[in-house]
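#data-curation
PF: Archiving a pair of folding outputs for the training set. Convention for this channel: one message per protein, sequence first, structure tokens after, nothing in between. First:
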Amino acid sequence: MTTPLSPVVPARLGAYARLAKLDVWDYYLALPLAWALAGFTPAAFGVLLVFGIGTVCVVAGSVAFDDVTGFRDGSDAANYGPNASARRLARKPLLTGELTEAEAVRFGWAACGAGALLWALAALVAPYAPLWTVLLGALCLCSSVQYSWGLKISYRGWQEVFLAGFGTGLVLVGLGLCTGSVGGFAAVQSVLFGLGPLLFGVYSNTRDAEGDAAVGRPTAAVLLTEGQNRAFIACLTVAEIALIVTAAGLGPAPWWFALAMLPAMGVRVAQLRRGVGLGDALAARLLGLRAHRVTTASLFAVDLVLVLGAGS
């Protein structure tokens, strides 16, 4: 017999899923990229599966803490105000009253704790676990928890560094656990992956600059003038493209690498035009998500070609 309370459970699970931002999975693409770099071996798949589930937990906990902090200081209320669509506002279950602050905090600690245990398990079962992977993994874990909680590194001018560094670190740690080392081309791909979250984060920060300034969150969009922020974003875009071209022409990448990355570079240029040229930060952010996904898919395809070529 169905009780009147039966719809409550799925509704609350949905609220927790939105608190964990499970619909934003772009950091998790680090795991298939690391698998590709490791040569698509079954052993690497098993290690990365454990590490990947742990990564979902770590990210879920860190974004939950971010929502709690944004709820407490009022920045989320400012950035997700009464003019926000119901769908966009639903991404903040603390603002809608679906979850309490205490429930979000408990969820954050439980998710981060589970993530830490799974990362430790991945290191234990991995064929390789050099010290640098353990230290880098610990840095990724601590910085994600402290992103807007505890030390609040994103409130101390480190937000952009974290956005790029966390993604880069995930690829490096995942690959290190599978192979024990990182080559030059793998390092280039790791940095390109890390630049993806940064290059959609800076457009989000541009849109949220007023609310962030009100609570003392010193993002680049807050610290710089409007013109300087546009120049900063343009420089990041040029740096990403330059890394691709340089790696193909002078670095460890195959000569055809830049040609393979043309679709990704095209979306990135379109993003720059939309956000900096036309001033549409929200549309540019969405293009940034696409650029990151196209970049990761392109890198995956490049690695697949190299593995197949080596085996032929």
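PF: Second:
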Amino acid sequence: MSRMIQSVRWPLALSILMLGGMASALAQTDSPVCAQEAREQAQRLLDFHVGGDDRIFIDPEVVEKAPLRNPANPKQSFQVLEVRGMILKGQYRMRLIYYRFEDSCVLMGQEILEYASL
């Protein structure tokens, strides 16, 4: 009986390890479409906002937010991507708004907000 239990444990343990490895690989590559464009645009936006500084840091994580309806055509929606950045002690949240057209990411809008307690 114990040999039978041991023979079942190995395939089960191996299956669990394989599933865990596949899940972590998917999580690492699961970035939103247009994420690379959003990081690049966030760098340019923050650079413009602070007047050019080589100490800008853009967080590599891009978070997809709820889509935004196109005000000119309610049948269309825009992808909203949030990127965080900082320079010295200043922290910023940037939201980049894209329209997906075939394989292209068309920038439709952007906003930047500095975190501050006033």
